[in-house]
Amino acid sequence: MEFSIKSGAPQTGRSGCLVVGVYEPRKLSSAAAGLDRAAKGFLTQVVRRGDLQGKPGTTLLLHGVPGIAAERVLLVGLGREAEFRDKQYREAVAAAIRALNATGAEEASLHLTELAVGRRDAAWKVAHAVTVARECAYRFTRMKSKSENAEPALHRLTLCVDRAVMKRAAAGLEQGLATAHGMSLAKDLGNLPPNVCTPSYLADQARELAKRYRMKVTVLEREDMERLGMGTLLSVARASSQPPKFITLEHRGGGRSMKPVVLVGKGITFDTGGISLKPAAEMDEMKFDMCGAAAVLGTMKAVGEMRLPVSVVGAIPTTENMPGGRATRPGDIVKSLSGQTVEILNTDAEGRLILCDALTYVERFQPAAVIDIATLTGACVIALGHVATGLFANDGVLAREVAGAGDAAYDRVWQLPLWEDYQEQLKSNFADFANIGGRPAGAVTAACFLARFTKKYKWAHLDIAGTAWKSGKEKGATGRPVPLLTQFLINRSAQRK
Ligand code: BES
Ligand code: MN
Ligand code: ZN
Questions:
Q1: Within this chain, do residues 147 and 185 fall inside the same structural domain, yes or no?
Q2: Is the CB of 379 under 6 A from ligand 1?
Q3: Cα of 329 to ligand 2 centre, how many Å?
Q4: By 3-state DSSP, what share of the chain in percent is helix, strand and coil, each rounded to 5?
Q5: CATH, residue 73
Q6: Residue 271: CB within 6 Å of ligand 1?
Q7: What is the pLDDT of residues 288-297, one digit of tens each?
Q8: Percent of the chain at pLDDT exceeding 90
Q9: Do 262 and 221 belong to one domain?
């Protein structure tokens, strides 16, 4: 789908379909009222007859509206005007796109981008219209042998804004497109089956991004990691026939001298649990255990596309977690890159084992901040469900910055504590500490484990176990938290100007 922005009154434009909003109860938005005047009160009559109350999610398609050049007019219910906020706006856009896809219109002019949405500016409204529209259009068909039903006709969407905010709208368009493309890459990688999306496949993806956006890429092999002493990462990779990789991707948009933001993504391309084997039900979903890595690659794509003037390093430890004769046993003690020893009491707590070596490795980049992204704990899903990503941080300012970016991106996080008091649960009789801390506060103790490796820089941890993918009928990766991370980096680049 192609997007463009435009200013001007709706009735003057020729269009396949004009999309305007109606608040509840039966109150025309200002664009709808403008159309109504040109149509001599036609829309007023329609809503008076009770065909559209303005309830959220409802739509009404009209043909041959008198006095209007456009072939169709789509009315979209917005709900009550006083309650019209981020969520309602995004849902209205989604309802409009779904209704448009059911028509034969090839092009549509969306006037919803002119609505007041709290204090959101035109850039926000345009960016979110783009990401929502792209989300509605996303299909993962790469592994199907035959193409399914015909594509919808809609392929051009014009986003209408006031003339005075055209410049902000253009910025929003660029941001929305880059975010959508980054999300789409993250979703594709997440949705690919684990026999295709292997550590080597992720490394190839990083190499492709590096080539396309002139970034520096390095891929460490098993032997390199052995030489460095990445004992905890390698302990997870022991029983896999797929070679593990450690990928770094550098975008130096802020120049050589600027300290980078480092994004570390968990890249377990399949998590069986290892010797602490997971139960069979829904184990297929553990192909999504590389969604942290996918979010890093997706964000790097967005950053590259926007040529953001910030320095960003993506770091991805990636391997499978398999059982087998060579596999790590519960009780094994391994030495991490940091020198600290870990008693592995459960081989299914593998994410923290690959992340901790990555978190030590990235010290060499002298990071301005490090954010790791990981489908780390089932406990986080119990705590926050599928709405908020779990946030942990060793720096309050960074935590607020991340949370703010999440709010702006509608990709929200909720902070959980990282207090010393929880560290006790990781005590080991035989090594420096254990890799699990028992059932209570499982998301917190996992973060506490990581905190032992992040003392040298400002660090935030995002547990995306509940937000990276959907289960059930609509099973699939969500592309989160690419919107948050992209927004975070955009904010950082704006601060520098
Ligand atoms: N990848 C899983 C976490 C996970 C589980 C995410 C289910 C989403 C849904 C992680 O590697 C894991 O297995 N964690 C264990 C840790 C436990 C053994 C301390 C868990 O959460 O059960
Ligand atoms: Mn696991
Ligand atoms: Zn895992």
A1: no
A2: yes
A3: 14
A4: 40, 20, 35
A5: 3.40.220.10
A6: yes
A7: 999 999 999 9
A8: 95
A9: yes
- 153 and 218 assigned to the same domain: no
CB-side exposure of 364: number of CA atoms within 13 Å?
11
Query: 280: CA distance to ligand 1 center in Å?
Result: 14
Catalytic residue positions?
278, 352
- At 147, is the pLDDT very low, low, confident or very high (cuts 50, 70, 90)? confident
Determine the distance separating the centroid of ligand 2 and the alpha carbon of 356, expressed in angstroms.
15
The per-residue pLDDT of the chain, averaged, comes to 97
3-state secondary structure of 156: strand
Q: What percent of the chain has pLDDT over 70?
A: 99
Helical (H) or strand (E) element with 218: strand 216-220
Q: Is the CB of 114 under 6 A from ligand 1?
A: no
**pLDDT tens-digit readout, 426-438:** 999 999 999 999 9
In a domain, 171, yes or no: no
pLDDT value for 497:
54
Ligand 1: atom nearest CA of 437 is: 19
pLDDT tens-place string over residues 377-415: 999 999 999 999 999 999 999 999 999 999 999 999 999
Of all protein residues, whose CA lies closest to atom 9 belonging to ligand 1? Answer: 378
Ligand 1 atom closest to the Cα of residue 377 is 21
d(CA 343, CA 360): 18
Q: Ligand 3: distance of its center to the CA of 271 in Å?
A: 5
Burial class for 281, CB neighbours closer than 10 Å (0-12, 13-18, 19+): exposed
| Residue 302 φ/ψ, nearest 5 degrees | -60, -45
103 CB within 6 A, ligand 1: no
Looking at the fold, whether 424 and 292 belong to one and the same domain comes out as: yes
Which of 100, 124, 158 delimits the end of a domain?
158
Looking at the structure, do residues 154 and 20 belong to the same domain, yes or no? Answer: yes
The H or E element spanning position 44 is helix 42-48
